[in-house]
Amino acid sequence: MAKEHALTIDVAGEQWDRIGIKTHLISILEPLDPIIKDQVVPQFQPGDWIAISEKVVTISQGRVVHIDVVKASPLAKFIVKGVKKYDNDIGYSLPEKMQVAIWQAGYFRMIAALVGGTATRLFGRHGDFYRIAGNRISEIDGFNPDAIAPFDKFAMIGPADPAGYCQRLEDTFGVPAVVIDGNNINVEVLGASRGLPVSPQRAREILLDNPMGQDDEMTPIMLVRRRA
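RE: above sequence
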């Protein structure tokens, strides 16, 4: 089901239009440059910028893992028993997804994160598991049965060098860009080009309701424009 969000949002007294760029289903290792050139550049105006879903960048870079090649270890099955569960997001509730995180961080680092995160939660701190594990495991997405096929069977391990990717788009097409990790829980800016006309924090606020259509809406790129 497509999510419904207002196309315009008010942030700190300014109104911003978020214009979805309709795409086809992006294939693994398919470059996004033709979409930027053909669908973004013709309607770009000075002061505009684009937000790109980290999922589609990851797919374009081929940084994906099919669930058929993942066998959850006892450690993965044990860790997921203690992770926070969400009604509206799969999060890390699936052992296979946790196994991909273990591959990213390493077994010893994940054990340290498990011990350290558990200990600090006793004192009311949250999120130390992901901070200790590092290796950007919080950006891993996928194995989501609600995602559009065939990507319901893939995990996305996060884009390589998101800031550098954004800068290349700006240098090539003159379009400032951010890559965002957006879901039903939170939105984070993973990287931004140097010519972005707002701060990464303000970009996050403008996109905090996660308006991007990353599933059957097929609008994983948004052109963002401040209203005069």
